[in-house]
């Protein structure tokens, strides 16, 4: 803070202000009228709050992913499918974890997105405050006065059978099947002799891939509100998605997870939903070959 103030008093100062959250936090505090908000203690308190939010959401989500996979029927082959994808993509990237490689791990991506849908950590999604002077009246006649807080019941929309087939079932590859089909160079075309594969035109392939991009973990929509929606969607979701995919890919590659029956129910605290504190899974380190 002292160096920032020195820079303001001396434009020729060699100090280069970093473009990060700590600096944003300090700048916001300097604009506040209450001097207490500008003390190092208050600035640090706000940093701790942000750290808490980012850490517990990631840890709860990763716990839910592992539980959902462990408690899924083994005959569905979710773990094997993810492991095959991770092994293949990692080999294509020369054994290095890369951003491009993570982007191609669509099954891994789907397993996490589906867990966030099925075992979310919040009962409602984006909340907004009415700022219009005269309030807002909804299409069905409900009047919301200025200052009213409005939220979306995202838990229930995420389990709506009108939107998701078998909504109360964890389907790890719910979002990756269509993406893998879209990325395939061929399409099955029905004919008099039965269905046969035909090559897609480059234009059709690109258009189909673009349409299915909204099925990725970082994509927000009216039916996937776990990262918020609109202008105020979580800006850190890209980092969080990469972090979650790396953790799941590493664990599936290096550990066998024993299938388990009857997943314990999550715990509800107001609008917050956390994984069961009594749930357990068994894992064993795998013996990797030179290829993995």
Give a description of the structure.
It is a single chain. 42% of the residues lie in helices and 10% in strands. The chain starts with a helix and ends in a 7-residue tail after the last strand. It has 10 helices and 10 strands. It has a two-stranded antiparallel sheet. It is globular and about 65 Å long. With 292 residues, it is mainly α.
SSE blueprint and pairings:
Blueprint lengths: L1 H8 L11 H10 L9 H31 L7 H15 L6 H6 L1 H13 L8 E3 L6 E2 L5 E2 L4 E3 L2 H5 L17 H8 L2 E4 L6 E4 L2 H10 L25 H18 E3 L9 E3 L2 E3 L8 E3 L7
Antiparallel strand pairs: 1-4, 2-3, 5-6, 7-10, 8-9
Number of strands: 10
Shape summary = globular
- Proportion of residues in extended strands: 5-15%
H-E string = HHHHHHEEEEHHEEHHEEEE
- As residue ranges, the low-confidence spans are 187-191
Order of strands across the biggest sheet? 1-4
How big is the Rg? 24 Å
Count of DSSP H/I helices = 10
User: Sheet bearing the most strands, described?
Assistant: 2 strands, antiparallel
> What is the arithmetic mean of pLDDT?
86
What is the structural class?
A: mainly alpha
Helix content: 40-55%
Report, as a whole number of angstroms, the end-to-end distance.
48 Å
Observed structural traits:
single chain, 292 residues, mainly alpha, two-stranded antiparallel sheet, 42% helix
């Amino acid at each position: 803070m002292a160096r920032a103030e020195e820079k303001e008093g001396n434009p020729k100062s060699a100090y280069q202000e970093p473009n990060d959250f700590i600096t944003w936090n300090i700048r916001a505090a300097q604009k506040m009228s209450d001097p207490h908000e500008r003390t190092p203690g208050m600035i640090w308190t706000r940093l701790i709050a942000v750290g808490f939010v980012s850490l517990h959401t990631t840890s709860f989500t990763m716990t839910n992913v592992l539980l959902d996979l462990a408690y899924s029927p083994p005959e569905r082959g979710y773990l094997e499918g993810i492991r095959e994808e991770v092994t293949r993509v990692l080999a294509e990237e020369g054994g290095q974890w890369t951003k491009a490689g993570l982007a191609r791990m669509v099954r891994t991506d789907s397993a996490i997105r589906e867990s966030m849908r099925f075992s979310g950590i919040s009962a409602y999604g984006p909340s907004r405050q009415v700022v219009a002077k005269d309030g807002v009246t909804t299409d069905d006649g409900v009047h919301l006065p200025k200052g009213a807080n409005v939220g979306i019941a995202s838990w229930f929309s995420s389990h709506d059978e009108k939107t998701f087939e078998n909504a109360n079932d964890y389907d790890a590859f719910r979002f990756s099947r269509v993406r893998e089909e879209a990325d395939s160079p061929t399409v099955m075309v029905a004919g008099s002799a039965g269905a046969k594969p035909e090559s897609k035109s480059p234009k059709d392939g690109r258009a189909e891939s673009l349409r299915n991009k909204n099925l990725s973990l970082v994509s927000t929509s009216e039916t996937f509100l776990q990262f918020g929606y609109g202008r105020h969607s979580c800006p850190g979701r890209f980092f969080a998605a990469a972090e979650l995919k790396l953790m799941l890919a590493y664990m599936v590659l290096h550990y066998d997870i024993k299938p388990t029956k009857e997943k314990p129910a999550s715990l509800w605290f107001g609008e917050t939903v956390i994984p069961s504190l009594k749930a357990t899974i068994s894992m064993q380190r795998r013996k990797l070959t030179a290829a993995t």
